[in-house]
Automatic annotation (TrEMBL):
Domain of life where this protein originates: Bacteria
Biological function: Ring cyclization and eight-electron oxidation of 3a-(2-amino-2-carboxyethyl)-4,5-dioxo-4,5,6,7,8,9-hexahydroquinoline-7,9-dicarboxylic-acid to PQQ.
Family under the similarity heading: Belongs to the PqqC family.
Catalytic reactions of this protein: 6-(2-amino-2-carboxyethyl)-7,8-dioxo-1,2,3,4,7,8-hexahydroquinoline-2,4-dicarboxylate + 3 O2 = pyrroloquinoline quinone + 2 H2O2 + 2 H2O + H(+)
Protein name: Pyrroloquinoline-quinone synthase
Assigned EC number: 1.3.3.11
Length: 259
């Protein structure tokens, strides 16, 4: 190769090297955290919810639809565990299932997140039959949640662990509800908000574990990029849920159809 050709190839090689360079963990984590801009906290329906702009039936609709997510989270976590061959990791992961399903009366009286969400439903005066039958759940919500469970069933458990990292952004959305709802929605019994309070420390613990898994598993730049793509996929699930809820329960919904 002539000298001038070699000089021209060098920037291309440098660019290729840059594309393959492993991000150090701080940079990788910063890139994961930068995905916050796609979090459903920025969705118009969530903004209306947290600014007190929704009518009671729309709050009930959100609670009813989100319940489908809540009941499927421990099924998703069971799928993650079924794909994990590491006993120490399973011992940690099982806590996520118990957080939602509860520990049962023989181990303290922690009723768990699903029960706690049903108290939220009570506080917003959602009929328990409507809650448990999922009769207000929109097709788009069902598809989105099912896609999350199926992802955890079909992919390596480390990928599923990474998909749970949207929880990095959840403490703020829970804190917003705790701070705003008592004055914005005085008709909601504040006892019903306990679920949101309970999730803040649990989400923080889950994220520490999830980041540990991501750090260990993402040993190549390709895997790091895959982790970002997985996080985008999960953010899309949460976003699609709110799209479906917003569309299904418009401000002028006929009275007879309102939850
Ligand atoms: O209210 C929310 O906005 C919100 C978001 C998320 C999330 O970001 O995935 C979770 C939760 N709540 C939540 O309560 C919860 O238990 C939970 C588990 C997971 C998960 O992916 O395993 N995400 C979330």
């Amino acid at each position: 190769m002539t000298a001038s050709l070699a000089n021209r190839a060098r920037p291309r090689e440098a660019a290729r090297d840059e594309l393959q360079r492993l991000w150090d963990f701080d940079e990788f984590e910063a890139r994961l955290r930068a995905c916050e801009s796609r979090y459903h906290i920025h969705h118009r329906f969530n903004q209306r919810l947290n600014h007190g702009e929704l009518q009671p039936f729309q709050v009930r609709a959100w609670v009813a639809n989100r319940f489908y997510y809540q009941v499927n989270i421990p099924r998703k976590d069971a799928a993650v565990m079924s794909n994990c061959d590491d006993r120490a990791e399973r011992r940690r992961w099982i806590l996520r299932m118990l957080d939602h399903d509860g520990h049962g009366s023989h181990v303290g009286d922690d009723a768990g997140g699903i029960e706690s969400w049903s108290r939220l439903a009570q506080a917003v005066a959602l009929d328990p039959l409507d809650l448990w039958s999922h009769r207000h759940v929109q097709p788009g919500v069902r598809f989105a949640v099912d896609a999350y469970v199926n992802f955890a069933r079909q992919r390596p458990w480390e990928e599923a662990a990474i998909s749970s990292l949207t929880e990095m952004f959840a403490p703020r959305i829970h804190a917003d509800r705790l701070a705003g709802w008592p004055t914005l929605y005085p008709w909601i019994d504040v006892e019903g908000l306990a679920y949101f309070r309970s999730r803040i420390p649990l989400a923080t613990r889950d994220v520490e574990h999830g980041l540990e898994v991501a750090r260990r598993w993402c040993t190549t730049r390709a895997r790091q990029e895959r982790a970002i793509a997985i996080l985008h996929f999960k953010l899309d699930i949460l976003w699609a849920m709110l799209d479906a809820i917003e569309r299904g329960f418009p401000d002028d919904m006929p009275l007879a159809q309102r939850p």
